[in-house]
Write a structure and sequence with these properties.
Blueprint: H1 12-24, E1 30-37, E2 47-48, H2 52-59, H3 66-74, H4 80-86, E3 94-98, E4 103-104, E5 111-116, H5 117-121, H6 124-148, E6 153-155, H7 163-175, E7 180-181, H8 184-190, H9 200-205, H10 209-220, E8 225-227, H11 233-244, E9 250-253, H12 258-271, E10 278-281, H13 287-292, E11 300-303, H14 305-308, E12 318-326, E13 332-334, E14 348-356, E15 359-368, H15 370-374, E16 383-384, E17 386-391, E18 394-395, H16 401-417, E19 435-439
Parallel strand pairs: 6-7, 6-11, 8-9, 9-10, 10-11, 15-19
Antiparallel strand pairs: 1-5, 1-12, 2-4, 3-5, 3-17, 12-13, 14-15, 14-16, 17-18
Helix pairs in contact: 6-7, 7-8, 10-11, 11-12
Length: about 450
């Protein structure tokens, strides 16, 4: 695996701000930063939060070694005093936010980071790059899973994005409801189900399609899935059943009118006695294509390009903003931007979701000073959306690793089921529930 420092996955101005703040004394001011998005991608009804587990993984290694410090010194990015400050840097603040797999909406405070200005400002780019991409993929995956109904979706997008983004996308796709991935590094790192058999080149390298099928079955057994659209699909299906027998595991179709071809292939398989052989389809699928295939006799889907690009929305437009800081008198004070179209809500946040008849009807964001929030008492039937990820530098490991991904996968399904049914519509519309912000 590439050896790199998450502490350099930053924009340069995070270090130059740190340098200046250390010199003027504001670097040690306690602060609260918040990540949120002002809007969902056009027409989307909800988003899915993903990436918090990867953030915790990165935080464990967020420090600079001698080579990193030498790089900062050689480029004259920071002063000698700041290099000394960075030498033993570890994040000692606290982080809370929405759990992975949770539904998100405009102005949902999905992550809140509390610590000194110096340590919090260094995290901005890393946190945003992870949450923006992973949540975009998980949100697209969730829409695809809804459109696919009960048929499993698998990630096949590795060759359609950056090699490291492919690993992140595989993980986020599973959070979003997918069942597995073709990416072996993602499967290894996160304990995901790995899938895959053969491409068209495997058929083409053999002297005949029959020889290719015989080779694959000899190597992988009759339960394998044979790719049947290299030449003539009808002939390929016939050959596949002749070679493997009626116990052939599956066939894959990667071109043409997928619904029509799946129907013909299903009928042919049944006529040949291969009634339990499954059909997988691939070929530039997105949620709309999956919805169009709902009546086709398809058993599973492989999704690539549109998954890893967020199905047209490759980012969630999340931002990282300072909402509270200690003032010159040592008192914590809510702060906010007033910029046109970019104003922010001052103060740290609480977040809840209310329900009527077991369906979510509103997101409630409560903002204010720490003391005012401490006195706020939410109605008993409101669901608290925030969990503690890091407490004064101590990471909650319950939100890392394979089990955390499985929990997020299951939680997403539950959280989506609690939204009004319009959330699953593929037609453009407003967010499934409104967000009400109250400043105390």
């Amino acid at each position: 695996m590439v050896d790199y420092s998450p502490a350099l996955m930053t924009d340069m101005y995070e270090y130059t701000m740190l340098d200046a703040a250390l010199k003027d004394g504001t670097a040690n001011r306690p602060c609260v930063f918040e990540i949120f998005t002002r809007h969902l991608p056009a027409g989307r009804r909800y988003g899915v939060l993903a990436g918090t587990g990867r953030i915790l993984d990165a935080l464990e290694h967020f420090h600079l070694d001698d080579d990193d410090l030498a790089f900062l010194a050689d480029r004259k990015i920071v002063s000698r005093e700041t290099l000394d400050w960075l030498k033993d840097f570890r994040f000692t603040g606290s982080i809370k936010g929405y759990r992975e797999g949770e539904m998100l909406f405009p102005n949902s405070p999905v992550l809140q980071v509390e610590g000194t200005f110096g340590e919090c400002t260094l995290l901005e780019t890393l946190l945003l790059s992870i949450l923006n991409y992973d949540s975009a993929v998980a949100s697209a995956a969730s829409r695809m899973v809804s459109a696919a109904k009960d048929r499993p979706c698998m990630d096949m997008g590795g060759r359609r994005t950056n090699e490291w983004a492919a690993v992140a996308a595989a993980r986020a796709a599973v959070v979003g409801g997918f069942q597995g991935t073709a990416n072996l590094l993602a499967a290894q790192l996160y304990g995901l189900k790995a899938i895959g058999t053969a491409a068209h080149c495997f058929t083409l390298v053999h002297d005949s399609e029959r020889e290719a099928f015989e080779s694959q079955i000899n190597a992988l057994g009759k339960s394998t899935t044979l790719l049947v659209d290299t030449y003539n699909i009808e002939e390929a299906v016939k050959t596949a059943v002749e070679v493997a027998g009626p116990d052939l595991g599956g066939v894959r179709i990667d071109s043409g009118d997928l619904a029509a071809m799946a129907q013909r292939v299903r009928n042919e398989l049944d006529a040949l006695g291969a009634t339990s052989t499954t059909i997988t389809v691939t070929n530039d699928l997105d949620e709309y294509a999956l919805a169009a295939l709902q009546t086709a006799p398809v058993d599973s889907y492989g999704v690539g390009t549109m998954l890893v690009t967020g199905s047209g929305a490759p980012t969630c437009a999340m931002v990282y903003k300072l909402t509270e800081r200690e003032n010159a008198d040592g008192i914590m004070e809510p702060v906010a931007k007033k910029s046109k179209d970019k104003a922010t809500v001052p103060g740290r946040k609480l977040a809840y979701r209310s329900y009527e008849y077991n369906l979510a009807d509103c997101e409630h964001v409560i903002s204010g000073s720490e003391s005012k929030l401490a006195d706020f008492h939410a109605p008993e039937d409101w669901k608290d959306l925030l969990v503690q990820y890091v407490n004064h530098g101590e990471i909650n490991h319950d939100y890392q690793g394979h089990d955390a991904i499985v929990n997020a996968h299951n939680y997403r399904a539950k959280a989506l089921a609690e939204l009004p049914i319009t959330a699953q519509s593929l037609m453009k519309g407003d967010p499934a529930i409104p967000t009400e912000t109250t400043v105390l």
